[in-house]
């Protein structure tokens, strides 16, 4: 028995060491990307089910030279403190794109970005954001910031103040991943949200298991609070049809489009997805 305990111990030690090494490597990659323009954004449309148009795009971060998903590198960015600088890069890049794109295009284009709980510690962020909006002369309502509920659970008062300052600038706020983890409606009265994004797994669970009524109630609940609903990660036509009947406002998912590069945005903007 002793021997097998030791083996287990070694195995976990080895596993832990590998993970630490991988994280260290990812951290170096992130640092290098910050220095050498190694990040890019891809954009996934959120299709308005009434108009068939991609009214919003979610900006998703990628490394130009590495095939490492944000699911892997964002946690490393968060634990290493690089997330603040990365978050600022995402913000500036998006505002720059928004300013350019809205000169080129007739239909207004809106972009949402993701914001990590760790960025609440970036004390200068709100001033940074305000300056950028001025510098690029951008209508702040074209930018939306997506936050998850973990932000509100971990740093309640501070988070509420921070987010309401963002909202005061005229920037929109979306509650991301609703239903993934601790869902609470409590925050909806403290924070001036503009939109709810229902987590892929929750939506799929309701729709696949013949719990349409539950999904309908959820959508109606948000509507009664004046909040439009985005269903995330919709891959199947049958679920699109259900969601349309339930008066869901937006769909974001592979069914309509994967995230695309900047060059495809204007084309998608003029495309009708449901005609
Ligand atoms: P998220 O904010 O929930 O973003 C949606 C994720 O779902 C994206 O993954 C997107 O590509 C994927 N997705 C969209 N439609 C479908 C679908 O129909 N089926 C499936 N299976 N997946 C779909 P991605 O780009 O790998 O990003 C993963 C997560 O990484 C994001 O989840 C977000 O939490 C985080 N992330 C991405 N970019 C940023 C960023 O710039 N800053 C921060 N803080 N986090 C980011
Ligand atoms: Ca998101
Ligand atoms: Ca999400
Ligand atoms: Ca608002």
From TrEMBL:
Main location: membrane
Subcellular location: Cell membrane
Domain EAL: 23-273
GO CC terms, sorted: plasma membrane
Record protein name field: EAL domain-containing protein
Single GO biological process annotation from the record: signal transduction
Keywords on record: Cell membrane, Membrane, Transmembrane, Transmembrane helix
Organism per entry: Halonatronomonas betaini
């Amino acid at each position: 028995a002793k021997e097998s305990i030791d083996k287990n111990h070694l195995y976990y030690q080895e596993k832990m060491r590998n993970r630490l090494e991988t994280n260290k490597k990812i951290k170096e990659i992130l640092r290098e990307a910050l220095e050498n323009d190694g990040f890019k954004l891809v954009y996934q449309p959120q299709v308005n089910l009434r108009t068939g148009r991609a009214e919003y795009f979610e900006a998703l971060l990628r490394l130009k030279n590495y095939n490492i998903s944000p699911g892997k590198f964002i946690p490393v960015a968060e634990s290493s403190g690089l997330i603040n600088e990365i978050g600022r890069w995402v913000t500036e890049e998006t505002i720059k794109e928004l300013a350019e794109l809205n000169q080129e295009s007739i239909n207004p284009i809106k972009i949402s970005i993701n914001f990590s709980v760790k960025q609440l510690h970036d004390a200068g962020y709100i001033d940074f954001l305000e300056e950028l909006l001025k510098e690029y002369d951008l209508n702040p309502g074209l930018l939306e910031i997506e936050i998850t509920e973990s932000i509100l659970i971990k740093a309640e008062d501070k988070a509420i103040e921070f987010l309401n300052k963002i909202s005061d600038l005229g920037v929109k706020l979306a509650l991301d991943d609703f239903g993934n983890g601790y869902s609470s409606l409590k925050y909806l009265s403290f924070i001036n949200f503009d939109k709810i994004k229902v987590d892929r797994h929750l939506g799929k669970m309701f729709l696949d298991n013949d719990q349409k009524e539950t999904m309908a109630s959820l959508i109606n609940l948000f509507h009664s609070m004046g909040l439009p609903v985005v269903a995330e990660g919709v891959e199947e036509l049958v679920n699109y049809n259900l969601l349309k009947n339930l008066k869901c406002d937006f769909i974001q998912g592979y069914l309509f489009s994967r995230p695309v590069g900047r060059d495809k945005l204007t084309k998608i903007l003029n495309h009708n997805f449901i005609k």
